[in-house]
């Protein structure tokens, strides 16, 4: 009625979503049925709010905002699976929680992730080929399970499958390619696949995918070989129409590039900003912008070729973090 945003404790059930004013409350403030509902993600009805998705029922539209991109994607993935189960007459059970896969409380996923990334003793990142595509800086599902067994993190491959699924669902591993992505979306018995042709990668690696690549393509792909130092969603002003859209940005160093993607998904970027020799600074307004667009938390990147990019962060703290990160990469990267 009032179009206001309020923090809620939200619970996903088999057939609906309950929301509570507080986590400790015994009765929900309301319930949204999932039968016959539809999801829209990303939802751009609120241009200055990031990580929003829309759940539409026959009677009403409901808008939710997550704290960060991975959290939003996890909610959307599980809600979609619940809707699919209702339509298919199946029982929905979320597999991504620690309780559901019965992980021991002593397992520290963060520490395990750091061990897996160890250059000497961790999972080896490789260049793998499948379906006329080349996947760089990734590894097979079987390699992950093999490593977990050899490091004595698990007793058998079945346990390894549960542990790897938890790493995937918590964002420590990302799927690469149709086989692993289909499983991660809930269309397989387990989110993670112990298969030699199911590929995965670390979120902060230099992963990129290329098709039938010639020598010329390899030169063009050099910009993706830098280490990811920061990523997240920002509002970006278009150069022609001057409209604003949410984009996922990935900042890489050596070479210094800022790639931006459609937050709805896709392995190929919509564009790239070469940061070597650029100037980045906070701005209070934008020339030729409409009044409602010239809001706070804006910053500008001017490339060495004098191309201007205007971006907007969600908070002043986030803007400062992005400016510092870009400045550092611009000074040190190629």
From TrEMBL:
CDD domains linked = PH1_Pleckstrin_2 (cd13301), PH2_Pleckstrin_2 (cd13302)
Name any GO cellular component annotation.
plasma membrane
Q: What keywords does the record list, in alphabetical order? A: Acetylation, Phosphoprotein, Repeat
A GO BP annotation: actin cytoskeleton organization
A Pfam family that the UniProt record links to this protein: DEP
Which domain of life does the protein's organism represent?
A: Eukaryota
| All residue ranges annotated as the DEP domain in the record | 119-204
Q: Any idea where the PH domain is?
A: 1-84, 227-331
Give start-end of the signal peptide.
Answer: none
Q: Per its UniProt record, what InterPro entries does this chain match?
A: DEP_dom (IPR000591), PH-like_dom_sf (IPR011993), PH_domain (IPR001849), Pleckstrin (IPR037370), WH-like_DNA-bd_sf (IPR036388), WH_DNA-bd_sf (IPR036390)
Gene3D superfamilies annotated for this entry? Pleckstrin-homology domain (PH domain)/Phosphotyrosine-binding domain (PTB) (2.30.29.30), Winged helix-like DNA-binding domain superfamily/Winged helix DNA-binding domain (1.10.10.10)
The reply on keyword Repeat is yes
Stated name of the protein: Pleckstrin
Species, as recorded? Crocodylus porosus (Saltwater crocodile)
